[in-house]
Amino acid sequence: MRWCRFDDSRLGIVDGAFVADVTAALDVLPAYRYPLPAHDVLIANLPAVAARVRAMLPGAPRRPLPSVTLLSPVANPGKLIAAPVNYQKHLDEVKSDSEIHAGNPKHTITIQSAGLFLKATSSLVGPGQGVSVRKPERRTDHEVELAVVIGREASHVPRHEALACVAGYCIGLDITIRGSEDRSFRKSVDTYSVLGPWLVDTDEVPDPGSLDLQITVNGELRQKSNTRCLILGVPALIELASSFYTLYPGDVIFTGTPEGVGPIEPGDLVEARIEAIGAMQVRVRDADATPLAALSGAAADARP
Ligand code: MN
């Protein structure tokens, strides 16, 4: 199934060009009190919710996809994990382009020596919320990436068992300010982690290791590759991440970007596409005058 979150945090199942509204299935979630769990409560209970969804689906009201605002399919991830320089040709372009590596020798080492980094969870939005360029005087780039959503608690997972820990896959945009600062700082700006357009569960993506991915900006093709070109594939990334920290349901791994990264500006329309997942359009706009929470309905998400 293809799970989406839309409008004011409604739960949907994507069915062709329509979204079936199955928000009432969230009633099967346990009642939570402070302190909330470290995982995303929907992803942690996805099998129970799915059973309810299947019963509701034939009679669920349907809306045309273009009429809804798509939010991040994961509302409350505990961690946004990201892989640096995980495609060889992207590593090559980082090494050869001073605007990308910004004179920082740390940016030109391999993923095996760099390890993984974290993006702030407050940077997360869905495609319908768009990207707000906060530092227009700095180069700000698109990076299209396969994003993995973890489905179960996992620590010290060997790679041959790793795919069993996955709930599903999304398209991820790891929007990046180029410069000398630490990656986690430059990549954690509000709206600089886009996840969408929906979560495709593993039934539809049995092998994440051979998916075409691409991104266009205003119709111009910028990046095009296949996940078979990943240096560390999804199982190796889960093995590496879980060797350092426990993964929880709803944690997201941005698996890294192929060659062709380039700048985006307010007014641009970005379209990212990954085989077996779908496509999403993301608008780029000027800096927001208001905090993201006021735009995203996050305050409503915080209701008990
Ligand atoms: Mn990236």
Descriptive notes:
The chain has 304 residues and is α+β, with helices and mostly antiparallel strands. The chain folds into 2 domains: 2-70, no CATH class; 72-286, Alpha-Beta Complex (Fumarylacetoacetate hydrolase, domain 2), CATH 3.90.850. The chain has helices at residues 41-44, 46-56, 88-96, 98-101, 111-114, 183-186, 234-244, 292-296, 298-301; strands spanning 2-6, 10-15, 18-21, 62-64, 70-71, 80-82, 117-119, 124-125, 131-132, 140-142, 144-150, 166-174, 176-177, 193-201, 212-217, 220-226, 252-254, 262-263, 269-274, 278-285. The strands form 3 sheets. Strands 1, 2, 3, 4, 5, 6, 7, 8, 11, 12, 14 and 17 form a 12-stranded mixed beta sheet that branches. It has a 5-stranded mixed beta sheet with strand order 9-20-19-15-16, with no helix packed on it. The radius of gyration is 18 Å and the shape is globular. Bound molecules: manganese (II) ion. Manganese (II) ion is lined by residues 82, 143, 145, 174, 254, 256-257.
